[in-house]
Amino acid sequence: MHIEEMDMEVEWNEEMERIWFYQTKVGEIGIGEKFGAIVRVTFGRDMGGLPEEFDMTETPLLKLAAVEIQEYLDGKRKTFDLPLAPEGTPFQKQVWQELRKIPYGQTATYGEIAAAVGIPKGARAIGRANHENPIAILIPCHRVVGANGKLTGYAAGIEIKKALLTIEQGEQLKIRE
């Protein structure tokens, strides 16, 4: 289901996530906030990655996040100054925290992340946690590659993963300009 097909008359409450969509050079992204922290960055309006109920409202924090993400996509920002509050299991949060340690322009393998979180043979578990990452780009799961350095799995597709890594390597982005 896409947002255009939904009845957007939902009564907002403070526990409800606020989401706004922005056009970028890698396509449309949705950014969500809850309780003053970013909880979601998704690609497109596919409802599979969005909560059942949300408030379609642009907030100052969402605007700031959009600016920082656009600066990143333009190759002008390497770190983000945004409060993040990803929702997940304790293990997922541990993995996502480790992903945030991968420096801009560099990659790590699933095995390296598994070893860093104390599960040396847990590459598949790392892959699953990566797949469940609700805050793309800001929690850089795109920086995780296969053991041989090959680009593997990315919720938004390998082309987007490749584009993000290309930006970080200082090269010009050649998709959706």
Description:
It is found in: Cytoplasm. It catalyses: a 4-O-methyl-thymidine in DNA + L-cysteinyl-[protein] = a thymidine in DNA + S-methyl-L-cysteinyl-[protein]; a 6-O-methyl-2'-deoxyguanosine in DNA + L-cysteinyl-[protein] = S-methyl-L-cysteinyl-[protein] + a 2'-deoxyguanosine in DNA. The active site is at residue 141. 29% of the residues lie in helices and 16% in strands. The protein has two domains: 3-73, Double Stranded RNA Binding Domain; 90-168, Winged helix-like DNA-binding domain superfamily/Winged helix DNA-binding domain (Arc Repressor Mutant, subunit A, Orthogonal Bundle). It has helices spanning 60-73, 90-99, 110-116, 123-131, 158-168, and strands at residues 17-24, 27-34, 37-43, 54-55, 108-109, 144-145. It is globular, with a radius of gyration of 16 Å. Mean pLDDT is 85; it is low at 1-12 and 173-177. It is of the alpha/beta class. A hairpin with a 2-residue loop joins strand 2 and strand 3 (37-43).
